[in-house]
Amino acid sequence: MLKYLLLAVLCIAQTHSLYEDQVGKFDWKQSYVGKLKFSHIDSRANIKRIYVASEDNAVASLSLGSGTLLWRQVLEKGPQGAIVYFHYGANSLVTVSFNGLIRVWNPNDGSLLAGWTLPLNIRHVKFMVDGGNFYAIEVSSAIKTVLVHTYKLASGSLNDVVKKIPATWLTESTYCETNQNVLACLVQGSVKILFPSSGGQTQILEQSVPSATFLTPVSSAIGLPSFKAGNVVITVNNKNIETSQIECNSVHVDKTEDTNKVLAICVRPLSKSNIEVDIFISQQKISSNNLQLKTQIAQSDINVQSCFCKGSSPSCFCILSSQDHTTLFISTQGKVVWIREEALTSIISAEFLDLPVSDVDAAIEKEFDNQECGYFEMFTRRLMSQFYQIQTLLSIESPAFKSSALVRDKFGLHKLILSVTSVGKVFAMDNLSGKILWTLYLANVTPYSVTGKQFAPVFVQRSTRYVPYPAQVSILFKQSTSKEGVLFTLDPITGQLIHGDQGQKLGYQVELSTLLPGVNKNHLRGILLLDSNNQIHLEPPSSPVPKPYFIYKVHPQFGVLTGYFVQEDLKLQKVWELNFGQPVVHVASKNPVEKVHSQGRVLYDRSVLYKYLNPNLIAVATHTPDNVFSIHLVDVVSGNLVESIIHKRTMGPFHMVHSENWLVYVYFNEKTRRNEVSTVEMFEGKTQSNSTAFSSLSKSLFKPILDKQSYILPVSQVDAIKETITEKGITSKHILIALGTGSILEMPWMFLDPRRPAQVTPDMREEGQVVLEYTPELPILSEAIINYNQTLYGIKNIHTAPSGLESTCFVFAHGLDLFYTRVAPSKTFDILKEDFDYALICLVLGALIVGTVVSKKLASRKTLKQAWK
Amino acid sequence: MAEIKIQISRFAGKINMSSFIYQIESLFGTLLLLFLVQTCQGAYEIKLLHYLDDSNFSTTRGVVEVHNVDSNDVTFRQHPLNPGDIKQLKALAEKDAFYRMDIVIQQTNKKDIVLSTYAKACSMVESKLHDSFNVYLDHNNNVVGISLLPYENLCSGKHVTDADLAAFRSKMYFYAPENGPVPDTLSYIQKIEREREAREKGGPKDNRSFLQKYWMYLVPLAIFLAVSGAANPDAQSGGGGGGAR
Amino acid sequence: MTANKQSNAKRMKWAVDFTNRNRTDLPSPPGYCPSNNSVQSDVTNQTDSNLLIKKCWEVALAPIKQVPMNIVIMYMAGNSISIFPIMMVGMLIVRPFKALFTLSSSFKMIEGHNVLGQKCIYLIGNIVNIILALYKCQSMGLLPSHSSDWLSFVLPQTRIEYSAGGVLFS
């Protein structure tokens, strides 16, 4: 009991938590839904809501006027939770998931009213909801009938006998769709319309559509279920079929209020930020409007999700969903009401970029730019820059102007987050407010896939520190058509592409890419690309390649690692090869910008255990089908296997973090049915083998000491892990673990340390270091959860970046929600606390000085008087 | 064995079946062979090939027969280098190039695995072809990787004569993977149990006497009193003596 | 005016002025011999040199006499790092150093005599004090004798070979 108390006290002393008034100051959270799949607008005056279901398995309600999220329910992850059917009616929202679950939601707050399982196989069934009943329609071409199963919507109880509709025209190639209460089937050039939910004899209407190859339901107003077959839009109006020929791909069918004529809205993208909206009545264009967008969207088809129309000259409002997952709410009169960037749910790479220095600082830098000029010139330059500084000092009116400008601040805390999404859209966000600064849409690109995860490498070639040269970032994508690489180079502060919209087509398939460590004379770091013929390409071609340079390739299916030496003429020479024989699950290498401050670890007897800091070490994780995980530590320059560690009877999902001289990995232990964390720390020993330089080739005989330990992580699911990173590496490192319950836990390295002693002796405690005794379970403290009460759904990855302050690290988590915050693993030791009493100290200091002077004078006067007595 | 033979020969002498003896001997021989084969189960061959220039043509360096993995029991059969080869190796060392090797592992019932390794050519030359191989295995005893480590790792520019570079001297070491740690719940539970029992017993009682516990503080106090008493009587007597006169 | 003159006369009546009397009128007190003065100076000169040498030795041996007291102070101060032990250790170090620098001034009273031996003993005594103070520092852990004290000066190793690579893109 005492031990727990002591542990608790120690933990409280070490953890970081926020005060209530600090909420929202350093962090922000943005919630997204995902690409819209279904939607329904409820435009009644007192409600004004839009109900949506997305491809990321979320059901949500958005506000009509502003597009903000009112409530959201996230269903099961993956294809099992995909929403197959969505219906709004009679104050309830019905969703059918791919795993057969039918749920009825309360539209006001998203609470679940009813849920039951459909006993049929989802794949061949179409759904319909009509007046309190749920119809599952099975189109079976084998027995040439349409079977209609009726269930009570609220309870799922089978209502009636199965209604059989004979359909002799059914063939294997028949394709059926439902819309509202109508079932339409496309059969060899004609569309048959059925009304399965109506009682009595079912009426079958027919419409011949000669050149139609596909049938899609079209967004339509209540009472006008419509379908599009080829170029013809078929509308069922009061059991009558009306057709109209529309060339458009995205259509919405509605009725005008007074004339009762059917109108069709057509949306067409013209350019990256331009949409044309046309309204047709009886195939005559009534109105056409051009909308200008502030963001860039995909130029391919925009899907009209749903609309509502009102007024006589029909003014309609529509929700559009474009190929790049952007959701727009527009008015057909040419105004964009709001835009939701749902592409942010599929971020695959993110980078933190420095902002440029302010003009004043740039002027100061320019003084020292050219050292060849003489003294007089430098003098005049300094005078000019100081004059300019005075000007700016006097001219700036309000302090608010300063903070919103895109300049670097005093502590380097204001940065730009560049996110690349898998749909080809690039966003730049301001890290302090979360506002989107610019968006860029890259057409016809797909991301690469690395060990099952989507990946688009982002190379920060030049930061904003080198003043006359702009910052430069390159993004590598794969062309959707030819699979060859395409490189997009842009200036991250303005968002301008350098080589034009199409990027730089590389003309070869890229197997590997990396950023070179050296800079050329313009401070630009080159990119090295390896193509499928083992040829090296450099972008720009004159980039300096360090010597000696080694490249390693990992073939994930076979588990073969090959190492190559880059020769003088940039040809590869194979030097080593390892063959694990098992599929590779994860490869973790160290962050190249990471610095390690202390070269050793001080033990309690004042000796030093030197760390094994091998910059060429990677950790390769392989998983065999018989559930054995192996971690291999490979030195990629010499091809040595430093150590192999196996864990039997373990399963994924598997996460690994490799940093400094340690490795942390999370796995699921099948034998004991729990998630476990293992840490491995590598040391050279009590003496350093070579204190000046590290060479992998000459260290071949050296085997480091490994300290290993495992802990139980009492959580049910781990989504991602990442370590914090700071500029100089002085601050201790904490591991951020994204849990499946929606929180991000900050686990101090102290808890994960493999050198935690089994028994703490008094002389260990003397050193002043906090030494924790080994307990097999890791504590999940609620103060250590950095997103306090903001639950995050579906975290895919966490990114960390150093800030200008040594004590602070930025954390950016993305998934279905975006969350950004700052963590200070060793508390903020390098800045004054926030409520530092400047006023009080100045007052006291002033009072003391005055007191000293006054009392000195009085004392001297008194001694003088005494002397005269 | 000999006695059995004598007995059998006596028996055979009686029955005159020398061929029978021969058959029994061959039976023993095959049984012995089978026994031997059983002990070096999994014995396999590793073929060593090396590249003596920058081309992609490798020449055979030798063969290694692996008898027992646990005791690093191997037999090397390596061809010595002819003068042409020595010249090529020295040329590689001057260029500061790499001496690469390909290793082909032929295991029974398994595919041939080809691995590669390398070392700096100058270190091979300076260690006079004295090297060692680290063979890495996985948990099923398959060979996963091989690493070539010359005896001298740093190139110090020593001059080596051709005679020293004639024959290879190699050793082979096998490394198996380590088992990952498991959270040690058993000892922790035992520790908690022990502590709970100790606490229930009431803890260690301090039964020593007052003097034994606090002698550390009493002794300096006593010394201090003695010293001040010695000083005081002196002062008193001195003062008293002075006052009395 | 007349009152002033009267009080002046009264004062002068009771005032006795000893300074104008002739010294030779008074008899000398019993036991006083005016010829004794000259003899005394010889004695003091002789005893002076003896006393001086004694004084020298006292000064020379003073540091060594302080050693046991320093040992007791060190024992009392304790091995923790807090204000009292640090003050004590500071005092223990600074005093011998100051004494060493003022070596010649403390032996100033003896000019001309050969006091090299005493000076050496004084020096050795102070050095012993300094060694004691250093030992105290060592037991408090202030001396950088272990490798962990030089750890912050160890520079990170420079990288000789560079590598890059990863899993093949698909």
**What is the CA-based Rg of chain C, rounded?**
36 Å
End-to-end separation of chain C? 132 Å
Count of strand segments of chain B: 9
Per DSSP, the total helix count of chain C is: 5
**Major sheet details of chain C:** none
Strand content of chain C: under 5%
Please describe what this structure looks like.
- The complex is a heterotrimer of chains A (869), B (245) and C (170).
- Chain A has 869 residues and is mainly β.
- Among the domains of chain A are: 357-404; 837-869.
- In chain A, the strands form 15 sheets. Chain A has an eight-stranded mixed sheet with strand order 21-20-19-18-22-23-24-25, with no helix packed on it. In chain A, strands 34, 37, 38, 39, 40 and 41 form a six-stranded antiparallel sheet that branches.
- In chain A, strand 15 (182-187) and strand 16 (190-194) form a beta hairpin.
- Residues 8-15 and 397-403 of chain A have low confidence and may be disordered.
- By secondary structure, chain B is α+β, with helices and mostly antiparallel strands.
- Among the domains of chain B are: 2-39; 44-175, no CATH class.
- Chain B contains six helices and nine strands; from the N terminus they run H-H-E-E-E-H-E-E-H-E-E-E-E-H-H.
- In chain B, the strands form two sheets. Chain B has a five-stranded antiparallel sheet with strand order 3-2-1-4-5. Chain B has a three-stranded mixed sheet with strand order 7-6-8, with no helix packed on it.
- In chain B, a hairpin with a 7-residue loop joins strand 1 and strand 2.
- Chain C has a domain at 45-141.
- Chain C contains five helices and two strands.
- Chain C has helices spanning 2-14, 37-77, 83-101, 103-106, 116-140; strands at residues 158-159, 162-167.
- The mean pLDDT of chain C is 77.
- Chain A binds chain B through residues 3, 562, 565, 573-582, 628-632, 638-641, 643-648, 669, 676, 678, 697-701, 708-712, 758, 774-777, and chain B through 54, 98, 100, 113-120, 134, 136, 138-139, 142, 144-145, 147, 149, 153-154, 175-185, 187-188, 195.
